[in-house]
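Quick one, T. Sequence first:
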Amino acid sequence: MLKGENIQYLENKEQSDIKAFYFEYEFEYLNIICWGVDRAGKIATETTALPRKNENAAQKNENGVL
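Structure tokens:
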């Protein structure tokens, strides 16, 4: 995410518009959500939950266990 890869931008925004990323831990769901904001502090990306389900599956397949 910090490299600007696999991010869904909003309202014609692009990587150069992002000035900060926010990360929040959701205790109830045991995950982290994150989003990027522009210079004005407006949300410029889709909110993303980490880890993503497909990343977990790839890790499990690669290592045999989680």
